[in-house]
Model the fold of this input.
Amino acid sequence: MAGVRGQRRERGDLENEVLAALAAAGRPLTPGEVLEQLDRALAYTTVMTTLSRLHAKDAVTRQRAGRAYAYAPADTATAAARRMRRLLDGDADRAVVLARFLDELDPGDVPVLQKLLAEADPGAAGGRD
Done:
């Protein structure tokens, strides 16, 4: 896909620009408003498609604004949790996914995770017999 004056965009550049425009606005924007904020010649449908893809990735939230949607950046912690949940609910082996997640944790995060697990189910983290 070519950008302005035939230059190729790097993968993710447009998504990053759209996210930056949403963050700078400080309020939800419609695709038309996002298009106005971007400093490039794009079709409305390109911006709409980009926003839809970002929504599918949980990178943005959306709410009805008339006949369109208004988009805002998603809370990154919530988005990460949703991606993890989708991965766990997918075809992958849950034990393998969770083991890999634990392997990637900073050692200082392990007690935090143990505490959260204990709060979620007091008997589970305490080693029920």
Notes: The mean pLDDT is 85. Strands lie at 60-65, 68-73. The chain has two domains: 4-73, 91-125.
